[in-house]
Design brief:
The protein has about 300 residues and is of the alpha/beta class. About 30% of the residues lie in helices and about 15% in strands. The protein is built from ten helices and 14 strands. The strands form two sheets. The chain has a ten-stranded mixed sheet, with helices on both faces. Strands 11-14-12-13 form a four-stranded parallel sheet, covered by helices on one side. A hairpin with a 3-residue loop joins strand 8 and strand 9. Helix 1 packs across helix 6 and helix 9 runs parallel beside helix 10. The longest helix has 18 residues. It is globular, with a radius of gyration of 19 Å. The N and C termini lie far apart (about 40 Å). Bound molecules: threonylcarbamoyladenylate (TXA) and magnesium ion.
Length: about 300
């Protein structure tokens, strides 16, 4: 845990329009003051992120969230149940929110969440303002779950990294659209099943083709240098196996005990390690599509998708 002086300095950098990477319980974020156009613009520049892909705003608590979005009973119920935690809610943006239009890519909605990591919470309390933060990786690459990943990917492009160790959850937040019907926009660190229990019924899921509900869900994403092959039950000589469960010959294993929580925490860590090792193709063992497995499979499918570059 950084000392008080460290948090004061990090908050000062944010206030001055700088970029500060900080840990959340999901992945490291790349933070900027969401009210400052120039600061938010620098996020897109540092990540080489297309500007049509909007950002998530991080706030300290429910009261702070209400300053930026039109709050509803349902939002209140879900936020009370799951915040702080790995759930992002997409709600109508308030006219008087005062955020840079770059944050929302001019959409009428805002994605907002209250992170649970103690370092993120201390930073938000010290800064006392809305922090726009995508994952702190170059656009399309593997998300960072350790400070070193951020340094490796973005050195020279950002002012600071607050080091809070490894992220516990390891996959990004679950994104829930709260329009007419609650809609799962991205599977993530809060399992869909937990949301369905809270909502008392099945969730609608988004259509890959709908640019409004899924503005930045690129098919190729989280991509290491090597090609990735999914659902591998055997490997050829030149492939490296990223295992799951009790499999033989794995170069790395997401969870030898087939524990999905452990596998999520290891996913980006192991992909970074394999990426640093060589460009030999990666084969991945099947991962069950339940609980956190849905988020793991979503990220793996994007890692394996054809690349447009
Ligand atoms: O766990 C997380 O959510 C991490 C940490 C840092 O909080 N952040 C993160 O941000 O994953 P990013 O930028 O990598 O992913 C944000 C996603 C993008 O797919 C974006 O398109 C979507 O959220 N998004 C943002 N605003 C939206 C909106 N108004 N409507 C629908 N989707 C939105
Ligand atoms: Mg990201």
């Amino acid at each position: 845990m950084p000392d008080t002086e460290g948090f004061v300095r990090a908050a000062h950098v944010l206030g001055a329009g700088g970029l500060v990477s900080f840990p959340t319980e999901t992945v490291y974020g790349l933070g900027a003051d969401a009210r400052q156009d120039a600061a938010v613009a620098r996020i897109f520049e540092a990540k080489q992120r297309p500007t049509f892909n909007p950002l998530i705003v991080h706030v300290a608590d429910i009261d702070a969230a209400k300053r930026y979005v039109i709050w509803t009973d349902l939002a209140d119920r879900l936020a009370t149940a799951f915040w702080p935690g790995p759930l992002t809610l997409v709600l109508p943006l308030r006219q008087d929110a005062g955020l840079s239009p770059l944050v929302t890519a001019d959409l009428p909605t805002l994605a907002i969440r209250v992170p649970a990591h103690p370092v993120a919470q201390r930073l938000l309390a010290e800064f006392d303002g809305p922090v726009a933060a995508p994952s702190a990786n170059p656009s399309g690459k593997i998300s960072p779950t350790q400070a070193q990943h951020v340094i490796d990917g973005l050195t020279g492009r950002i002012e600071a990294v607050v080091d809070g160790g490894a992220c516990g959850v390891g996959v990004e937040s679950t994104i829930l659209g709260l329009g007419d019907a609650p809609t799962l926009l991205r599977p993530g660190g809060l399992p869909q099943e937990a949301l369905e229990i809270a909502l008392g019924g099945p969730l609608a899921t988004r259509s890959e083709a709908d640019p409004l509900t899924a503005p930045g869900q690129m098919l190729s994403h989280y991509a290491p240098g090597a090609t990735v092959r999914l659902n591998a039950t055997e490997t050829s000589d030149h492939e490296r196996l990223l295992g799951f469960g009790n499999v033989e010959g794995a170069t790395l294993n997401l969870s030898p005990a087939a524990d999905l929580v452990e596998a999520a925490a290891n996913l980006f860590l192991h992909l970074h390690a394999l990426d640093a090792q060589s460009d030999a193709p990666i084969a991945v063992s099947p991962v069950p599509d339940i609980g956190l497995g849905r988020a793991i499979n979503d990220r793996l499918r994007r890692a394996a998708a054809p690349r447009d570059h």
